[in-house]
Amino acid sequence: MIRIGVLGTANIALRRMIPAILKRDEFEYIGVAVSSPNEWTEEVADPEAFKAAKIKKAESFREAFGGKIYEGYEELLKDETVDAVYIPLPPSMHEYWSKKALSYNKHVLSEKPFTLTEEATKEVTTLAEEKGLACFENYGFVLHPQFLEMKHLLDAGELGEFRLMRAAFTFPFRDASDFRYKKEYGGGAALDCGGYVVKAAEEILGEDIELVDAILHKTEGYDVDIYGDAIFRNPKGQTAQLSFGMDNVYRCQLEIMGSTGSVLSDRTYTAPDSFAVELSVNKNGTNEKITLEPFDQFGAVLGVFADLIANREKRETVKEKLIRHAYLVDEVMRRIS
Q1: Could you give the residue range(s) of every CATH 3.40.50.720 domain in the chain?
Q2: What is the rounded distance in angstroms from the CA atom of residue 94 to the CA atom of residue 75?
Q3: Is the pTM of this model over 0.90?
């Protein structure tokens, strides 16, 4: 049994990850830690009010799931009964708290992006290797049956010869206080929704893809990239066209086109665990729908994480994939206008 705690009261932990933890036989949920004022990413003007607000939100976690409330991230890490942590903090905090968790001998499951840079990802994964610990990043969509079915149709020749991959993950503007719009929190479209479509390109075209071109755009009043586009190509000359943005019409798409057919998903990256996904398949001019049963991709991520904890020999491949993905996103980030 892997005893796991959560650093922070992020909504994604409340809505998706902790419910998934409670369904997995490999895990026991221990509790959630709230930030002490000196652990937050920026100076806190009123420490008492800050603490009270954090505790209030943590109480909703305890009401829903049980478990402890730790008054400080490091207080959870000091608990020797905890084996692993899930980190859904703002991206700028991932590197520090991943390293801190590893220093306390905790396995690390992090929200994406794993860190803000390739170099930081190398440092965290190297520390994990030195400590004999597992780390993993929550890109659950690549484990979803819809994604695996799309890859199968391509690999089995059902679409003919590969011609093009197109991916788009965009959504309307959120509240300006959202961490995604703040540089100090590691915000920006490339690091957020851009990471998903880059990951999709890696999985479809291979990890040896290279960036051909990209452009990132800022919007007045914000110091992070708000939307962008990128083109990647593998050594075979096969290409992926990617779009991502945080002030756009909603798109959650992946399309693979071949010489004789195509397959399209309209809910590729964030399908809820109660949602039956429908793929649109065109073969030689004939259209059909493939409906897939609801699937808990957060639970699937936990399954891989548990396997990595149990099987040290599998961790090197994951380390290489984490570093390679961070490198590719870094390449896109360098194109900001």
Answers
A1: 2-138
A2: 17
A3: yes
CATH superfamily of 2-138: NAD(P)-binding Rossmann-like Domain (3.40.50.720)
Side by side, the strands of the sheet bearing 286-292 are 210-218, 225-233, 239-245, 162-170, 251-258, 261-265, 277-283, 286-292
Distance CA 237, CA 239 (A): 6
User: In the CATH hierarchy, which top-level class contains the domain 141-295?
Assistant: alpha beta
- Residues 88 and 108: their CA atoms lie apart, in Å, by 11
Residue 262 has pLDDT above 80, yes or no: yes
β-strand pairing of 239-245 with 162-170: parallel
Give the integer Cα–Cα distance in Å for 65 and 27.
14
Q: CATH 3.30.360.10 spans which residues of the chain?
A: 141-295
pLDDT category, 37, cuts 50, 70, 90? confident
Residues classed as catalytic: 112
